[in-house]
Design goal:
Helix 5 packs antiparallel against helix 8 and helix 8 packs parallel to helix 9. The strands form 2 sheets. Strands 3-2-1-4-5 form a 5-stranded mixed beta sheet, with helices on both faces. The protein has a 5-stranded mixed beta sheet with strand order 8-7-6-9-10, with helices on both faces. By secondary structure, it is of the alpha/beta class. It is globular. The longest helix has 26 residues. The relative contact order is 0.19.
């Protein structure tokens, strides 16, 4: 089964063709990073306009790369939630039009489910049940994946998401948007023990809180500036990344141990962070767990992951009609 998938939840306009939920036939991503970098973050109105300009061309390129006509696709899958409402609406309405034009099923896909499904493309042997850590710019969740379309959230962020904390801490250190990749590079050159940063406590041991950690970095930088003192940016980046990755890893591994999971996965944009990948790999090996991590190319927003999850949504009978609407915030 060949699914044409569309993703436009934030600032990437993406389209892909995925076969049987596991194989990428084509995948095209048009990013807006250079434009949003001017403003230090994603500007929703600009993102929506660029999606309108890019989506038809991106779709044409994905079909061309796949060597297919639109009518050759068996279904159309689209991210409908959560995300920036204007951005989502572009993708949803475009997908509805395509499905109507070729009289094929329209499959609604939750963005977080898509990130989790990226692992199915990278690891053909992976099957539920397993425990997944989703860490991205807008989400930080620990999720029980009971089946391909059945999920249970047992831990979540109470304030900032991990990726958001990375970007805001990075900005205070003087790095451009998106800051996560710059923190990662600087951390490799620094001393992670140089600065002592707080580890927030939560009532639920599986929940996350990154607001205090982010604020500690911002205050440290501002206080040094006021006193005319120098900050070693590489050391601060290393200290921040070490602390953030320790929080994510320790809570995730605890959840896996407490709930009896031997198979665990990582997903989302922050899954590209080298510190998190290394720390989690070491802990998984220490506890005899099988860890699956998607390649860097599938960590950020892309349409291939939507096509993968769309396949399993289709098998489960989750088909939408022309009333499908975008939803900015929606629990898993």
């Amino acid at each position: 089964m060949k699914i044409l998938a569309i993703e436009s939840s934030c600032d990437e306009t993406a389209c892909a063709v995925v076969k049987d939920g596991r194989n990428i036939v084509s995948s095209i991503v048009a990013t807006q990073i250079d434009e949003h970098k001017l403003y230090g973050g994603v500007v929703p109105e600009i993102a929506s306009r660029r999606h309108c300009e890019n989506i038809a061309g991106v779709c044409d390129e994905a079909l061309l790369q796949a060597g297919l006509r639109l009518s050759d696709c068996d279904a159309v899958a689209v991210t409908y939630a959560p995300g920036l409402i204007g951005a989502l609406l572009v993708g949803v309405n475009f997908a509805k039009s395509l499905a109507l034009a070729i009289n094929k099923p329209l499959i609604p896909v939750h963005h977080i489910k898509g990130h989790i499904a990226a692992n199915y493309i990278a690891h053909s042997e992976l099957e539920p049940p397993y425990l997944c850590l989703v860490a991205s710019g807008g989400h930080s969740h620990i999720i029980k994946v009971n089946d391909y379309t059945k999920f249970e959230t047992i831990g979540k962020t109470l304030d900032d998401a991990a990726g958001e904390a990375f970007d805001k801490a990075a900005r205070s250190m003087g790095f451009p948007y998106p800051g996560g990749i710059h923190v990662d590079k600087a951390a490799k050159l620094g001393d992670s023990k140089r600065y002592k940063l707080p580890i927030p406590k939560t009532e639920n041991p599986y929940d996350f809180s990154f607001s205090g950690l982010k604020t500690a970095v911002i205050n440290l930088v501002h206080n040094a500036e006021q006193k005319g003192e120098d900050i070693n940016v590489n050391d601060l980046a290393a200290s921040f990344q070490h602390t953030a990755c320790d929080i994510l890893t320790s809570k995730f591994i605890r959840a896996a141990l407490d709930n009896g999971y031997k198979t665990i996965t990582l997903a989302g944009g922050v899954a590209a962070n080298s510190g998190l990948r290394e720390t989690l790999t070491k802990q998984a090996d220490l506890h005899g767990m099988k860890l699956y991590i998607p390649p860097i190319s599938l960590c950020g927003d892309n349409a291939a992951m939507i096509g993968s999850q769309g396949y399993y949504e289709y098998l489960a009978g989750n088909i939408a009609d022309s009333s499908l609407n975008a939803v900015a915030s929606l629990k898993l």
